[in-house]
Specification:
3 copies of one chain form a homotrimer. By secondary structure, chain A is an alpha+beta fold. In chain A, 21% of the residues lie in helices and 32% in strands. In chain A, β13 and β14 form a beta hairpin.
Chain lengths: 346, 346, 346
């Protein structure tokens, strides 16, 4: 179960080539993407409606795609525009096309009710294109339900245990119950720590010594399971928790979004941007290498959790006090899914 | 779903050794084959009725087979003829035997209703034993339902796309809607092309230059999903399409038969015979090597198609004009299966 | 289906370390074992009740285990005794603990109804700790239902076929129908052979030449699927079958117990003890190496049988005269399972 009537991120822009076909499984279905001659991206279910050969085995021909079994050609609307055996291609043989939009360095796709696919609903992620923020785009697949990754991102208390030797660095993550605010669009979870030790990984790139003031402000958007994170570290007592950043401070903007691949696997699109003006490239790469390790730490946990939950399909998880944000977000999501189910009945 | 009351090809004759046991999965069931001392082949379900140890782990002993768990011995009728602990073997413990006949270099098996297993129903495939026709026996397993391979063989229009660089060689295969005739035993599909380019693979072995007159006459027999193909190529205008073959002409007889291995895999027995008197062996080997590539091209398509159809179990394939022969053959087959289902109810 | 209200062997004592966590799947469920500071072993279902992270990814901390996702700590009764975010750990969040006892070099576990888990029901296996008997502990997993391995152990007639070249050595194993006695606790199967050839493997370590008097007395205990075997070989006519053992005689005590891993796999705990006073170590190792081969011979048979039975879920095995002991033991087991099912309904 996941939301259907929502714009999901299907790919980083650069994953869809100018020539050729890009394939990805999304919400349980293989989708092929190709660019028309004007650069516009078409997203199409990965099968020819005639004999169900995957179109990913087909041929990209300008604005169209050709099935390489019997040669039918489909345009960007899914219409059959060429059939070798006839001058009049069969009108009823149509490929399934999904609304697809390229925006903010992402390819967005709408796999729910077509009539509701309004491009204006796509959230604006300005930081993606802001030249003063530097990042390396990442994409991973976790073999777990989207909900488990969402839970993980919303509850940073796990930094104390899962990421103890990387971005954790103390049990303060687990001891503090975060501040929680609820909005139309989702929840905001705020954690601020004064005068705590630098985590092991930050120490390696830090431009200051001694303890840190640390903040993590997570904005969780129900739409597209998106997390917008404002976080950072600064020398203790230099005012960062009130928004004053000294030169040595680290300030990050992160966009992390989840797209279900299937009921038990999830695409994780991840970027972690900084605005350092010196040594940008070197530090961006170092942070990226660090996150490869951090994300792997989560992967081990989440995939083990998924496997275990599959062994106990009738068990219910026990709730604890620190689940506050997770529980609220799950509730909002549940409301949205029920609303969507109701609309589908109309 | 496939036909049950029909003689299927289980193996090439030479696959069943004089001594020892040969195992193959057919219609979803493992079957063991062994030769009795007179050469007669026995086909038996691959389990001992006592404790279900596979008989393929047993021992061939003359006219019989011994289970190597507790030592029961079964004869060619499935009767228990020896039990170590008693002089009177248990009468009720019987192995399951399938009617099996060796004919025309093939081992034929009947896995339906025993009482209908009339050896006279086995079709005569004279070319198999005709010394003037030369071929190399081939056997492949495709991971697709038998129906998909049958569709493929009946619609040569795919040569234009799937086999473009091997035995295709032009879009003329896809442009021509073939002539279709219907018979009691199945359908005949005839394609004739005048003055077309030689396909890339034929060029390599051809004894003439320039364009070709090309013919393909497919006789599709419902029984045993058999295809008897008469095909060839000859220098343009030398009368081959009317049955006059000049010396340089290529004339082929091919027998291709399908036996379901399971609901989603199929045995493909294949031979492609020529009657060249010079350099027979060299050319037979070259053609065989070419077909290894051609059959692999089909395998990729068919297995991708099977996987995709399994993802969409409730979808229906869209029909197009060039499906004519496929549709007719599917209809005849459907009639036979319904007739068979009706008989089973009696 | 298998017995639940019974003490099963979970592991050899030495498999559970002093520090750290040992994991094993038993009766379909992963269980973690760890030792408390007093050496006592705790057996716990392998999941944290909060988010179902496997506790096998957790950390052993003295008398307790810590889940390494959000840091909850559970004691040997499954009670949550520490939660990072609060001074009062959540009372309702409990891990599932199984009664576990260490006795006679084995770790015993009770996975049925807790209220019936009486440690006095654990059978005494004195030979395990008798210093005059020497053995090497072995553990294997067979990919078959526990019943198939039980059948195998109860019917030694298969030595004539499965173990012909190792511990068989003649068709006398299959020819003799054994003596069968029935008790409250199970069945005793007795086989005695006078003046038969030494089996190939015994020949290699034997301290006598010529033929042998051979005995095998199997005590099959329903509880825990345990087999206690008294067996041996002695020079013909020296009185071994009446209990007089000359110095050259071989006398063995074997304990072999089965614990279901799942519906189609079984743990096999195996020891084969001798009391030779000379060259103990060398002979124990040689016998152990021989049994590695013998047990592999059974594994091939049992796993092939399991796979075949899964192909024919609706077939019934045919009975033969030599199944006597197997049939009786199956009947006793069936009675116990029905009794257990009745108790569960109360």
């Amino acid at each position: 179960m996941f939301l259907k009537n929502v714009w999901y991120i299907a790919a980083w822009s650069e994953e869809v080539p100018v020539t050729g076909i890009f394939k990805r499984k999304l919400l349980g279905e293989d989708v092929v993407f190709f660019r028309q001659t004007d650069g516009n991206i078409v997203g199409m279910a990965d099968y020819c409606p005639h004999r169900y050969l995957p179109l990913s085995l087909g041929r990209h021909e300008g604005d169209n795609i050709r099935c390489m079994y019997h040669g039918l050609v489909f345009d960007g609307k899914g219409k059959c525009v060429e059939a070798p055996f006839s001058d009049t291609p069969p009108k009823k043989v149509c490929a399934k096309v999904y609304p697809t939009v390229e925006q903010d360095r992402f390819v967005w796709i709408w796999m729910g009710d077509d009539s509701k696919a309004d491009p204006d609903l796509i959230p604006s992620l300005k930081v993606m294109n802001d030249k003063s923020w530097h990042y390396i785009p990442r994409h991973l697949v976790y073999k777990c339900h989207v909900q488990l990754l969402m839970d993980n991102l919303l509850d940073a208390s796990h930094l104390a245990f899962v990421h103890a030797s990387t971005i954790g660095g103390g049990d303060y993550h687990a001891k503090q119950i975060p501040e929680l605010e609820t909005f139309d669009w989702g929840v905001r979870v705020t954690k601020k720590f004064e005068n705590v030790p630098l985590p092991p990984f930050v120490k390696k790139v830090a431009r200051f010594e001694g303890n840190t003031d640390r903040w993590q402000i997570f904005d969780w958007h129900i739409d597209g399971y998106q997390l917008i994170l404002n976080s950072g570290q600064a020398p203790t007592g230099t005012g960062a928790l009130e928004g004053n950043y000294v030169d040595e401070a680290f300030h990050f903007h992160s966009v992390q979004t989840l797209t279900p691949e299937s009921e038990n696997s999830t695409h994780y699109f991840f970027m972690f941007a900084h605005s350092f003006t010196d040594e940008q490239d070197r530090i961006a790469k170092e942070i990226d290498a660090q996150f490869a390790i951090v994300l792997e730490e989560d992967k081990v946990i989440l995939e083990a959790q998924q496997a275990k939950l599959e062994e106990y399909p009738n068990h219910k998880m026990a709730g604890i006090k620190s689940d506050l944000a997770v529980s609220k977000a799950r509730m909002l999501l549940e409301e949205r899914m029920q609303k969507e189910a109701g609309e589908n009945e109309d």
